[in-house]
Amino acid sequence: MIEPLWEVFVRSRRGLSHTHVGSLHAPDATMALRNARDVYTRRQEGVSIWVVRAADITASSPDEKDEFFDPAGDKVYRHPTFYQVPEGVEHL
Amino acid sequence: MLAGMDSFQATIDADGRIEPRDAMPEGYRKTLIRQIAQHAHSEIIGMQPEGNWISRAPSLRRKAILMAKVQDEAGHGLYLYAAAETLGVDRADLLDLLHSGRQKYSSIFNYPTLTWADIGAIGWLVDGAAIVNQVPLCRCSYGPYARAMVRVCKEESFHQRQGFEILHTLCNGTPAQKAMAQDALDRWWWPSLMMFGPPDSASTHSEQSMAWGIKRHSNDELRQRFVDMTVPQADVLGLKVPDEGLSYDEETGHYRFTEPDYTELYDVVKGNGPCNQQRLAHRVKAHEDGAWVREAAAAYAGKQASRREGSAA
Ligand SMILES: [Fe+2]
Ligand SMILES: [Fe+2]
Question: Could you say which of B108, B131, B159, B192 would form a disulfide bridge with B125 (CB–CB 3.0 to 4.6 Å)?
């Protein structure tokens, strides 16, 4: 019997997003949360924890990463640095 | 656009990080699985020599600290097993390999902890050597391993300090306490030097691991770093490093020291150290004794899941 794998996300303090910190095995979500507390927050590294079954995550494929992210590649005009600001103009 | 192995090599050449689902050479994957698994095994086997003294720690303060330290080592093992699993292996299978003796752990944990001073020596020397080994691994080319090492290294510095503090206290105590500290250093010095592995001239896996960015420094470089760091600390304790050949080389700024007896290292790795059988037997027993907990948790999870399904239907 292999316990399912859970991915663990921790919010390190209020105002910040949850960040992936690692994974662990646990039979159910309740145990996964408790184990995550013991494994990943022994020094008050978090104020909130999410656990997600690894099998429930849908991820983009590394094989097609170039095509997948291509559409953004030729749109430099999405960045403010694309634009020329005339001399002397401030707060723009 | 680079695909597959070209993309792997380009990432390595640019000192980038390889992530779990990237294409990678089979040798790279295998080397990492072996190294990370053996590192994980070392963390959990390493709980035993120190666990031996939890019930006999000389004060409540020391006891609480030692429990926290041993618990950290369990945590380190878990971070590392999780990192190994991103390479497509199961933790349960890795534990089987440990239990059947087909995968090794660090030979240092096959030495016994005879006195309380040994707990100080382990924190100071063994965790100290582990830090020297692990800091460069924070820049390992495999992302999950490097990230696990960052967490581990943050926690190790407390381990080293608490060990040094134990010895410092003993060294400022009675003559018998100081002698106990010296005896611990005498016994742990050489096995600690062996923690960096065989000398470069005899190291088999090093070159490829360096090329892959798994290893960043040679065994001998790291051993030198450890000696340079540790000898002045021994001076502060007023203890004598048990090496008649030890001297400071003004020209290079490094200590010259006597190499440990590597035949002892090979012998302990082969299974002939003072505690190899005891360590493994204890690990297997702990795993087997815990089986009912894993089974009960799984049965409970199964029951809860079927109840939820029942009420949803
Ligand atoms: Fe550790
Ligand atoms: Fe440690």
Answer: B192
Average pLDDT, chain B: 95
Distance B73 CA to ligand 1 centre (A): 5
Chain B residues inside the 8 Å CB shell of A2 = 90, 92
- What would the mean pLDDT of B34-63 be, rounded to a whole number? 97
Whether A90 is covered by a domain: the verdict is no
Q: Tell me the H-state helices in chain B.
A: 4-13, 26-45, 47-51, 60-85, 91-99, 116-121, 127-134, 143-171, 175-194, 206-211, 219-237, 262-267, 276-289, 291-312
Number of domains in chain A: 1
Residues 6+ apart with CB under 8 A from B176: none
Angle, nearest 10°, between helix axes B127-134 and B175-194? 30
Domain presence at residue A46: yes
Q: Which domain holds residue A66?
A: 5-82
> What is the predicted pLDDT for the residue at B309?
85
Burial zone of B199 (CB within 10 Å; 0-12 exposed, 13-18 middle, 19+ buried): middle
Q: What b-and-e string marks burial along B218-244, b requiring 16 or more CB atoms within 10 Å of the CB?
A: bbbebbbbbbbebbebbeebebebbbe
CATH number of the domain residue A56 falls in = 3.10.20.520
Whether residue A20 is contained in a domain is answered as: yes
* Per-residue pLDDT tens over the stretch B104-134: 999 999 999 999 999 999 999 999 999 999 9
Give me the pLDDT at residue B313, please. 60
Q: Which of residues 20-59 of B touch A (CB under 8 A)?
A: 21-23
Alpha-carbon distance A23 to nearest alpha carbon in chain B (angstroms):
6
- Provide the residues around ligand 1 (an ion) whose CB is within 5 A: B 43, 73, 76
Q: Contact A4/B294 with Cβ under 8 angstroms?
A: no
Domains and CATH numbers, chain B: 1-273 (1.20.1260.10)
In a domain, A87, yes or no: no
Using a CB-CB cut-off of 8 Å, the residues of chain B touching A27 are 294, 297-298, 300-301
Mean per-residue pLDDT, A11-28: 96
